[in-house]
């Protein structure tokens, strides 16, 4: 009985591993015949729950395929500890370079140090890694984006606006909020009458916006720190969205862009995640080969409105 | 107060206050306690002296448990006074009761099964040395304490390995070490075998000699005759009288029930009919083997034997709760598949299990819900239960069984043991089985309710049903059965007609050793008429 | 058994009757206190519009919690409902939008997905003898993972029939509110009138007594977990409908809200006790709280603290009431 159970468990484990291996190979690039062939790059993502990072991953995968390198993608599910573990696993797998998209700028430091100890070059993407040596930082400026959002909101409306904040304490929320506050001074004609967190989540965005409408029926505009919340807010606003209440989002996700196109969303801020993914892989391959890399690469933050939305689709 | 007991030789903490009758530890006067709607205690008076066994006697629901809980500091009385050592006190919590020297041993023990005997004895107050538990001292003190209650076990034994009787002793030892001078034992013998009960009564006698005042609650009148110094009888929340030692069983019953009970075992046997239940060669390796018996229509067949003889195991297997290896079970000509409770039910078998709280009742549900549990399937059409019908039938059954309850919606947990047992039987009576197996149906049930349960048995057999009665209570099994099957060591040791049967004859078979059994089988026992 | 001496306390006013009703329904009392406090603090709280909003915001968690009520009454636990809701919504949306099936068929298949996931939970618990906590924890992970696999990490638009579940019927009547009330009635009927419902109380109260009374415990467990999965699927459709989009992270963590709602509603985590009305009140308590905190503009940092305190208080109130008996 005991033996049988052990055998069954072993068989089960083997099956699971085989399955996992099959799933894994389906996701990674198949090494082409170019000069970069044979290189393996590890990409440690903060989360795949957010379309923004899914696009970043897609950009990275496209670039990896074009350059003929193998890309190994891991998702930390927004948990900094997971991320450190995953990067450590990369180092034991002897990947040639590691791209880290930090869950948190401070908490990613041990992960980067682990790579540094193993003499594997690190490229950070989207967020910086504090107190660690990285070969290259690929980033777009969240603070700058927040500021642009405020200026744009000031162009299309004036008066009282509400701000839908992201997950309390998340760095993207902190940076975008800080930028928005700076931008308010530049715009001059809008003021924040209420701030609430909706966890970067569309359903929460809908609920929180519905509630805020009860408290402030005459508000003029909404700044949501990501498109998911903005789309929820638009749902809550119904016909008012784009007419007497202007919504500005952030991230330029496909659905966000559609909303801009339809005029429901006044603007969104494009960080060009695909571009960031591509650039990160490009830098990582260079670093792996020991070529010259660019210390800081700023992927431009752009305001997307109905006029220029076609460029981003 | 003239028959003062010999003053204690080494009364623990026996600093009896001056100015009151010497030796009086506890006096309760005019205690009244009302719960929503019902008056549980109505001006009860009660005293406990050092060095006496004072029995609290009464039917279920008479107020014994409430009185105990007042003494234990669980309930606050609405009126009345409690004196400890002659001083009026207000017992506010179980901790306070303990501090006053009052310890209660409930039926449900409060030991931690995973810990050892010694750890349980000193739970939460281990002697320490240099901040660490002083294991050597724990061990020494444990041995001394266990000695006091006559328990010879290694203090390092995990409590879960002890039998229930030994666990009780551990609990009593713990209470004594906390300087308990009044020890309340709430139906301790209900879960014990005869020999275990014997041991407990001996220990109680010894504690009495050490000057402890014991309050003893039991339904076994013979135990009372053996050990009681005084008996306070409660009925409907009032103290209706105090009987001296040596009072007759009849006197006790009459005071308790409020009327004389003519016959404790009112069995009315009829002419047995066709065979309804037939168990043939039933065997489960290592538990019981080659068990055969028959129950006919209109017949009560008893199964007697010592604890561990395999009685409960056989009836559980026959009902399909547990599996068996070989043999057959046939109900009214239909052979049961084995291991299938529902098939057994469909064929017309019912089982009232021995552990009513663990296996018989859903304590969190209502009276009506519990009564309808077995018949619910039959009362279901297209997935919906006919609740009006279920309610009506439950109402009728509760009335017929004279269940003392505030209504069908009352939670079963709040009922007394006897009333709970009536519900377990009642849910099966509603299903009208051809044969009903009763496993220890009157354990922890008072005399009045017992007789009512026996009358239910009579009514079943009178209407052509059969009853299989498993019981450790020998007078009951002899008094209520038409034939008795005696089991020993997982086998049928013999079958006896109850006509003129004595307890000794049953015991002689029950204590047979396996070799003896084999020899006896060559020369058949006195056979019952029916087989 | 009665004493004439103590009948002086029987004359009581109508205020007492209300008080006693509320004290017998701890969660309801909590809800009333919360509502009164909020209507004083915020003028917008008591508007019809806002109250309808609260109902809509309670709907998803309430429907999830009705399913969890079944499981908790039966003495189990279901941690997978949030993930199963997301998976069902995603399957419904994906089948219609990406695979091109008719909306109604996609909706039904989505619901079937939820029931199937629940059935797997039931199999693991009844025949696999896994603790419910572990079996449903595994399903929590599996269903969430499958949602990501199906969606490829991006939200999928829902077909009209699912979107209609999140819209209004006429100018004012929100469909989620109606669905919540409908499923409240269904849950009440299941719990009170059906064989499976009554078996839940018996199994949760004493599994052995239920078995010895001829109840097919394993079979009923399958049904109970499947029902929980089905209710989760309905909640998932509601959630997707409200957003016109099924998200891969939809209903993340909702299982905890659902369990909180059930417990606030007076159910016992050890089984055998619980009512659909209590669960509805529990879900409303959570929704009113979130709504009120938004209306009052309470800092997001403090909101989480307040929600936790209210959950603890609601259950504490109930426990104290029981102990007082």
UniProtKB/TrEMBL annotation, chain A:
<dbReference type="Pfam" id="PF13407">
    <property type="entry name" value="Peripla_BP_4"/>
</dbReference>
<dbReference type="GO" id="GO:0030313">
    <property type="term" value="C:cell envelope"/>
</dbReference>
<dbReference type="InterPro" id="IPR025997">
    <property type="entry name" value="SBP_2_dom"/>
</dbReference>
<feature type="domain" description="Periplasmic binding protein">
    <location>
        <begin position="41"/>
        <end position="292"/>
    </location>
</feature>
<keyword id="KW-0732">Signal</keyword>
<comment type="similarity">
    <text>Belongs to the bacterial solute-binding protein 2 family.</text>
</comment>
<dbReference type="InterPro" id="IPR028082">
    <property type="entry name" value="Peripla_BP_I"/>
</dbReference>
<dbReference type="GO" id="GO:0030246">
    <property type="term" value="F:carbohydrate binding"/>
</dbReference>
<feature type="signal peptide">
    <location>
        <begin position="1"/>
        <end position="20"/>
    </location>
</feature>
<protein>
    <submittedName>
        <fullName>Ribose transport system substrate-binding protein</fullName>
    </submittedName>
</protein>
TrEMBL record, chain B:
<keyword id="KW-0472">Membrane</keyword>
<dbReference type="InterPro" id="IPR003439">
    <property type="entry name" value="ABC_transporter-like_ATP-bd"/>
</dbReference>
<keyword id="KW-1278">Translocase</keyword>
<dbReference type="InterPro" id="IPR017871">
    <property type="entry name" value="ABC_transporter-like_CS"/>
</dbReference>
<keyword id="KW-0067">ATP-binding</keyword>
<keyword id="KW-0547">Nucleotide-binding</keyword>
<keyword id="KW-0677">Repeat</keyword>
<feature type="region of interest" description="Disordered">
    <location>
        <begin position="1"/>
        <end position="20"/>
    </location>
</feature>
<keyword id="KW-1003">Cell membrane</keyword>
<feature type="compositionally biased region" description="Basic and acidic residues">
    <location>
        <begin position="1"/>
        <end position="12"/>
    </location>
</feature>
<dbReference type="InterPro" id="IPR027417">
    <property type="entry name" value="P-loop_NTPase"/>
</dbReference>
<dbReference type="InterPro" id="IPR050107">
    <property type="entry name" value="ABC_carbohydrate_import_ATPase"/>
</dbReference>
<dbReference type="Pfam" id="PF00005">
    <property type="entry name" value="ABC_tran"/>
</dbReference>
<dbReference type="GO" id="GO:0016887">
    <property type="term" value="F:ATP hydrolysis activity"/>
</dbReference>
<dbReference type="GO" id="GO:0005524">
    <property type="term" value="F:ATP binding"/>
</dbReference>
Automatic annotation (TrEMBL), chain C:
<feature type="transmembrane region" description="Helical">
    <location>
        <begin position="222"/>
        <end position="240"/>
    </location>
</feature>
<feature type="transmembrane region" description="Helical">
    <location>
        <begin position="103"/>
        <end position="125"/>
    </location>
</feature>
<feature type="transmembrane region" description="Helical">
    <location>
        <begin position="21"/>
        <end position="42"/>
    </location>
</feature>
<keyword id="KW-0812">Transmembrane</keyword>
<feature type="transmembrane region" description="Helical">
    <location>
        <begin position="132"/>
        <end position="151"/>
    </location>
</feature>
<keyword id="KW-1003">Cell membrane</keyword>
<dbReference type="InterPro" id="IPR001851">
    <property type="entry name" value="ABC_transp_permease"/>
</dbReference>
<feature type="transmembrane region" description="Helical">
    <location>
        <begin position="54"/>
        <end position="72"/>
    </location>
</feature>
<dbReference type="Pfam" id="PF02653">
    <property type="entry name" value="BPD_transp_2"/>
</dbReference>
<keyword id="KW-0472">Membrane</keyword>
<dbReference type="GO" id="GO:0005886">
    <property type="term" value="C:plasma membrane"/>
</dbReference>
<dbReference type="GO" id="GO:0022857">
    <property type="term" value="F:transmembrane transporter activity"/>
</dbReference>
<feature type="transmembrane region" description="Helical">
    <location>
        <begin position="301"/>
        <end position="320"/>
    </location>
</feature>
<feature type="transmembrane region" description="Helical">
    <location>
        <begin position="171"/>
        <end position="191"/>
    </location>
</feature>
<feature type="transmembrane region" description="Helical">
    <location>
        <begin position="79"/>
        <end position="97"/>
    </location>
</feature>
């Amino acid at each position: 009985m005991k033996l049988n159970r052990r055998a069954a468990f072993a068989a089960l484990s083997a099956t699971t591993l085989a399955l996992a291996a099959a799933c894994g190979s389906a996701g990674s690039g198949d090494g082409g015949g170019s000069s970069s062939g044979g290189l393996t790059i590890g990409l440690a993502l903060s989360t795949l729950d957010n379309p923004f990072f899914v696009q970043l991953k897609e950009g990275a995968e496209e670039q990896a395929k074009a350059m003929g390198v193998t890309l190994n993608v891991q998702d930390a599910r927004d948990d900094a500890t997971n991320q450190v573990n995953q990067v450590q696993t990369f180092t034991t797998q002897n990947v040639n370079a590691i791209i880290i998209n930090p869950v948190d700028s401070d908490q990613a430091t041990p992960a980067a140090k682990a790579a540094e100890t193993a003499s594997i070059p690190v490229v950070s993407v989207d967020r910086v890694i504090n107190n660690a040596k990285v070969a290259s930082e690929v980033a777009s400026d969240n603070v700058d984006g927040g500021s642009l959002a405020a200026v744009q909101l000031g162009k299309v409306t004036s008066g009282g606006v509400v701000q839908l904040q992201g997950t309390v304490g998340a760095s993207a929320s902190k940076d975008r909020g800080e930028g928005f506050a700076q931008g308010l001074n530049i715009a001059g004609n809008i003021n924040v009458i209420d701030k609430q967190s909706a966890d970067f989540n569309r359903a929460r965005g809908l609920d929180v916006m519905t509630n805020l409408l009860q408290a402030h029926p005459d508000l003029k505009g909404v700044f949501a720190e990501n498109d998911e919340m903005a789309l929820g807010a638009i749902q809550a606003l119904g016909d008012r969205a784009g007419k007497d209440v202007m919504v500005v989002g952030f991230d330029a996700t496909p659905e966000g862009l559609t909303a801009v196109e339809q005029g429901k969303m006044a603007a969104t801020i494009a960080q060009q995640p695909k571009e960031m993914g591509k650039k990160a892989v490009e830098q990582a391959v260079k670093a792996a080969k020991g070529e010259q890399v660019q210390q800081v690469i700023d992927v431009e933050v752009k305001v997307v409105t109905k006029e220029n939305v076609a460029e981003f689709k | 107060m003239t028959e003062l007991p010999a003053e204690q030789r080494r009364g623990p903490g026996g600093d009896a206050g001056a100015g009151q009758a010497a030796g009086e530890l506890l006096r309760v006067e005019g205690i009244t306690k009302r719960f929503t709607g019902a008056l549980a205690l109505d001006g009860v008076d009660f005293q406990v002296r050092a060095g006496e066994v004072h029995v609290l006697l009464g039917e279920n629901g008479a107020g014994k448990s409430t009185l105990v809980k007042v003494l234990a500091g669980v309930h606050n009385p609405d009126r009345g006074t409690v004196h400890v050592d002659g001083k009026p006190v207000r017992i506010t919590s179980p901790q306070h009761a303990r501090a006053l020297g009052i310890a209660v041993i409930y039926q449900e023990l409060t030991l931690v099964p995973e810990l050892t005997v010694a750890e349980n004895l000193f739970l939460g107050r281990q002697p320490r040395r240099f901040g660490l538990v002083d294991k050597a001292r724990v061990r020494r003190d444990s041995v001394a304490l266990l000695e006091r209650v006559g328990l010879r076990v290694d203090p390092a034994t995990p409590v879960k390995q002890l039998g229930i009787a030994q666990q009780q002793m551990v609990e009593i030892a713990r209470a004594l070490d906390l300087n308990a001078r009044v020890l309340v034992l709430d139906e301790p013998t209900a879960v014990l075998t005869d020999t275990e009960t014997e041991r407990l009564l001996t220990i109680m006698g010894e504690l009495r000699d050490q000057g402890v005042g014991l309050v003893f609650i039991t339904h076994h009148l013979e135990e009372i005759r053996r050990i009681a110094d005084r008996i306070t009888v409660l009925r409907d929340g009032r103290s209706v009288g105090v009987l001296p030692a040596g009072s007759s069983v009849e006197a006790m019953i009459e005071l308790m029930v409020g009327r004389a009970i003519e016959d404790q075992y009112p069995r009315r046997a009829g002419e047995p009919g066709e065979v309804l239940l037939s168990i043939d060669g039933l065997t489960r390796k290592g538990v019981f083997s080659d068990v055969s018996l028959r129950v006919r229509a209109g017949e009560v067949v008893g199964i007697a034997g010592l604890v561990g003889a395999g009685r409960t195991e056989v009836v559980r297997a026959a009902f399909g709760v547990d599996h068996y290896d070989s043999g057959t079970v046939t109900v009214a000509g239909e052979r049961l598949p084995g291991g299938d409770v529902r098939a057994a039910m469909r064929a017309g078998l019912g089982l009232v299990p021995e552990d009513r709280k663990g296996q018989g009742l859903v304590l969190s549900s209502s009276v009506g819900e519990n009564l309808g549990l077995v018949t619910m399937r039959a009362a279901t059409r297209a997935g919906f239960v006919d609740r009006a019908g279920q309610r009506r039938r439950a109402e009728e059954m509760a009335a017929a069984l004279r269940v003392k309850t505030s209504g069908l919606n009352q939670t079963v947990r709040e009922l007394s043991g006897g009333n709970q047992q009536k519900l377990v039987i009642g849910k099966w009576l509603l299903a009208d089985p051809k044969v009903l197996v009763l496993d220890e149906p009157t354990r922890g049930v008072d005399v009045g309710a017992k007789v009512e349960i026996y009358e239910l048995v009579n009514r079943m057999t009178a209407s052509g049903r059969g009853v299989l009665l498993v019981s450790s209570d020998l007078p009951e099994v002899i008094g209520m059965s038409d034939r008795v099957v005696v089991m020993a060591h997982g086998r049928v040791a013999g079958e006896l007609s109850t006509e003129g049967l004595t307890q000794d004859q049953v015991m002689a078979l029950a204590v047979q050793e396996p070799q003896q059994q084999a020899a006896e089988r060559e020369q058949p026992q006195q056979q019952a008429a029916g087989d | 058994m009665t004493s004439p001496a103590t009948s002086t306390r029987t004359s009581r006013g109508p205020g007492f009757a209300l008080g006693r009703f509320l004290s017998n329904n701890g969660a309801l009392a909590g809800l009333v206190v919360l509502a009164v406090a909020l209507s004083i603090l915020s003028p917008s709280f008591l508007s019809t519009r806002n109250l309808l909003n609260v109902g809509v915001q309670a709907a998803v968690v309430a429907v999830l919690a009705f399913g969890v009520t079944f499981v908790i009454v039966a003495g189990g636990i279901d941690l997978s409902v949030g993930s199963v809701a997301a998976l069902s919504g995603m399957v419904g949306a994906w089948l219609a939008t990406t695979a091109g099936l008719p909306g109604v068929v996609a909706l039904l298949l989505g619901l079937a997905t939820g029931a199937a996931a629940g059935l797997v939970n039931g199999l693991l618990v009844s025949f696999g003898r896994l603790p419910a906590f572990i079996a449903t924890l595994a399903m929590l992970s599996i269903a969430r993972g499958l949602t990501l696999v199906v969606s490829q990490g991006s939200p999928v638009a829902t077909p009209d029939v699912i979107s209609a579940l999140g819209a209004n019927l006429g100018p004012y009547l929100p469909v989620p509110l109606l669905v919540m009330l409908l499923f409240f009635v269904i849950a009440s009927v299941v719990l009170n009138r059906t064989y499976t419902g009554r078996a839940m109380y018996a199994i949760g109260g004493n599994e052995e007594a239920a078995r010895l009374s001829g109840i097919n415990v394993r079979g009923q467990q399958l049904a109970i977990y499947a029902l929980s999965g089905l209710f989760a699927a309905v909640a998932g459709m509601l959630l997707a409908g409200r957003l016109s989009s099924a998200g891969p992270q939809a209903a993340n963590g909702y299982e905890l809200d659902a369990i909180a709602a059930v417990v606030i509603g007076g159910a016992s985590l050890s089984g055998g006790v619980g009512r659909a009305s209590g669960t509805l009140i529990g879900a409303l308590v959570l929704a009113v709280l979130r709504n009120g905190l938004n209306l009052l503009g309470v800092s997001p940092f403090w909101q989480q603290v307040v929600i936790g305190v209210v959950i603890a208080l609601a259950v504490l109130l109930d426990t104290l009431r029981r102990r007082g008996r």
